[in-house]
Design a protein that fits this description.
Number of helices: 12
Helix content: 25-40%
Number of domains: 2
Distance between the termini: 26 Å
Strand content: 15-25%
Number of strands: 17
Length: 373
């Protein structure tokens, strides 16, 4: 079938709206009419050449929509179901079976290689037959998606689907890192470095966890104001204040127990690690390519018995965790609607620019202009 999609034809270029061809779903796959797709920092990193990527490529991995057709082996979904589309995993490796699909041994191949689907064949093609690579097993920057049933999470019909897509990546990453991986104790102290959509999701989750101090660090004062509205007890502008000194003033002798980095900035990461108390834990979730060369394994880690760990997709099982986030949203504890701005498909490059500049926290492209929540 013919679809309209925003294709990356070469790295470091704008996305181009084109008419392309999408194949029918195979036996274990589902065809979805895209209502909307969030723009994630990972999309932007791959667009701008932060990682080697094959082109042409259809980015987008925070899709949500309505099922139009299911393959012969699909039993959990039917036509008309409302779904959020998450990342791809093989479902059979030891990490998937241990409830850690974000750590799937085939994660990179299935999600970030820019190649074919998991079975080695392509679903997306140019009009001349040129194959278009898939991203995160879904490629949601188009008005239809074909994805494996393992990518999907059914969501309530009365949930605004324009908000649902980012639950499958950005919000799940931020909130899951706090709730599933760090699991802060009541009255513990936590800092979130960077207050984009992932950082704000982490802040909301820390507030749900009843942390005593939830400290937001950013260089943008407007985002820091937003962080205070969503659960931050304290804020630090790292261009005006020393991060370590200010954190120590805030938490006092109790010390900083946990840190989440969403920036990928070496100086910010170094400061966050240095501020941790004994047995403190530091979670790295940012997708970036800048290297950190000033960490001393003995002084920064061993001496204080600190832990530094990478957390992919919030250590979450999407089918279990996304419904929990929806419950938090409905209870007013996860107000993602207040950080979302909607754009039309032809505005996608402007939406990316607004995300980079900090003008918009979570841009969402609405592909179905007839959809009503």
């Amino acid at each position: 079938m013919k679809i309209k999609a925003a294709v990356l034809n070469k790295p470091n270029q704008d996305l181009e709206l084109e008419n392309i061809v999408l194949d029918e779903p195979k036996s274990n796959e589902v065809l979805i009419k895209t209502v909307a797709s969030g723009i994630c920092h990972s999309d932007i990193e791959f667009q701008h050449g932060g990682f080697p990527v094959k082109t042409p490529l259809l980015l987008g991995h925070e899709g949500a929509g309505i099922v139009e057709k299911v393959g012969s082996n699909v039993t959990a979904f039917k036509k008309g179901d409302h779904v959020a589309v998450g990342f791809a995993s093989d479902g059979t490796c030891k990490f998937c079976r241990a409830g850690l699909p974000g750590s799937c041994v085939n994660f990179n191949q299935l999600n970030t290689s820019g190649g074919p689907m998991g079975d080695g064949t392509y679903r997306l093609h140019k009009a001349d037959g040129t194959n278009i690579g898939v991203f995160f097993g879904q490629s949601s920057f188009g008005d239809h998606i074909v994805a494996d049933q393992n990518n999907l999470v059914k969501v309530p019909d009365d949930l605004d689907l324009r908000l649902a897509g980012p639950l499958g990546c950005g919000y799940m990453t931020g909130a899951g890192t706090v709730l599933n991986s760090l699991k802060p104790e009541i009255n513990s102290n936590l800092v979130v470095l960077g207050t984009g959509s992932v950082g704000l999701a982490a802040i909301m989750a820390a507030a749900v966890s009843n942390c005593k101090h939830v400290i937001a660090v950013d260089k943008n004062d407007e985002r820091l104001k937003a962080a205070k509205l969503f659960g931050a007890t304290d804020t630090i502008n790292n261009t005006k204040e020393d991060i370590v000194k200010k954190i120590n003033e805030i938490v006092g002798s109790a010390g900083l127990n946990y840190a989440v980095d969403t920036t990928g900035e070496p100086d910010v990461i170094k400061a966050g690690i240095s501020a941790l108390t004994i047995k403190g834990q530091f979670a790295v979730v940012a997708m970036g390519t800048k290297s950190l060369k000033e960490i001393s394994p003995m002084i920064d880690i061993l001496t204080f018995s600190r832990t530094i760990k990478g957390v992919i997709e919030g250590d979450a099982v999407p089918q279990q965790f996304i419904p929990e986030l929806i419950d938090f949203y409905r209870a007013g504890k996860f107000p993602i609607d207040k950080i979302t701005k909607f754009y039309k498909p032809e505005q996608i490059n402007q939406a990316i620019e607004d995300s980079l500049s900090g003008t918009t926290i979570k841009p969402v492209i609405v592909f179905d202009d007839q959809y009503q929540a």
